[in-house]
Design goal:
Blueprint lengths: L19 H24 L2 E7 L12 H10 L5 E7 L5 H13 L3 E6 L2 E2 L2 H6 L5 E3 L4 E2 L5 E4 L2 E4 H6 L7 H24 L7 H11 L14 H6 L4 E3 L5 H20 L3 E4 L4 E4 L4
Helix pairs in contact: 1-9, 2-3, 6-7
């Protein structure tokens, strides 16, 4: 269990051990990590953060994320872990690796979604034994897209209109993408928060999430109420909950600090901070 963190500047009158210029340059990180410690003290769980600046960056889940996440996991002090995530989604192959890293860590994982974990971000959330959400939180459909002539096209549309495509390879690619996403999501849910659920019920859930039959846009909002209605294991924190207020403050700090410093992503824990800048 995370221990009580040592009080340090600016919470006591002793000047920081770092040089003044170094501390000032890194003060945003130090303040965020103080708040991470506060949240850990309240939950009794390690807190790891995978934050993407979704509003100003095109960064997505990619093949480098597992390295940063592994470093955070390697520095944990207990097997009870919260993962705070914000992302618009990304590459399914990379998502598979992130999920494998989380599963292979053999931890009691809970996922916190302050604002959004869309598309494959929702799939990563399925790694948790439960998902913590608030009134502002959203998950999303997990139906994959492929890009044709520069335009993202839902794979579900391609498969259902297979007779209208002259290139059978496109249809096969779309079918494979759907199978990959469904297989991953089903495995995660069946081994995690929906363990013991009948296979038929899992398939019905995935029919809603991985096609356009239930949600007609890839950006459709699955809020806390709807996520619970789907049968996902949701912990709903209301805005007046002290824990949620700390979580939302921390999320706001990440959003502001990423904008100020030009970061696309931040991977962070109490003792580790790895900013990522995506230029393309």
């Amino acid at each position: 269990m995370p221990g009580k963190q040592k009080e340090c500047f600016p919470r006591n009158s002793t000047p920081p051990g770092q040089s003044p210029l170094f501390w000032v340059e890194n003060k945003d990180r130090y303040l965020r990590q103080l708040l991470i410690g506060d949240i850990e003290a309240e939950t009794g769980r390690d807190l790891l953060v995978y934050f993407t600046d979704c509003d100003r960056s095109h960064a997505q889940i990619d093949q480098t994320d597992d390295i940063y996440l592994s470093e955070l996991l390697g520095d944990r002090r207990s097997n009870k872990v919260d993962l705070l995530i914000e992302t618009n989604g990304g590459i399914t192959d990379a998502t598979e690796k992130v999920c494998a890293v989380l599963q292979n860590a053999k931890i009691d994982l809970r996922v916190i979604v302050p604002r959004r974990a869309k598309s494959n971000g929702t799939v990563i959330a399925f790694c948790g034994s439960s998902i913590v959400m608030g009134n502002d939180s959203e998950l999303g459909p997990i139906d994959p897209n492929i890009v044709l002539n520069g335009t993202p096209i839902p794979c579900d549309f391609i498969v259902k209109a297979a007779g209208q495509f002259n290139d059978p390879l496109v249809v096969q690619f779309a079918q494979s993408a759907i199978k990959q996403t469904r297989k991953l999501a089903k495995q995660l849910l069946g081994a995690g928060m929906l363990k013991g659920t009948a296979e038929r019920d899992l398939d019905q859930l995935l029919n809603k999430l991985a096609t356009r039959d239930q949600y007609h846009s890839h950006g459709s909002v699955i809020d806390v109420t709807e996520a619970a209605a789907l049968g996902l294991k949701i912990e709903h924190l209301t805005p007046d909950t002290p824990l949620w207020q700390r979580i939302w403050l921390l999320r706001s700090m990440y959003s502001f600090d990423c904008r100020q410093r030009g970061y696309s992503k931040l991977f962070e824990a109490r003792r580790i901070s790895s900013p990522v800048v995506v230029t393309a």
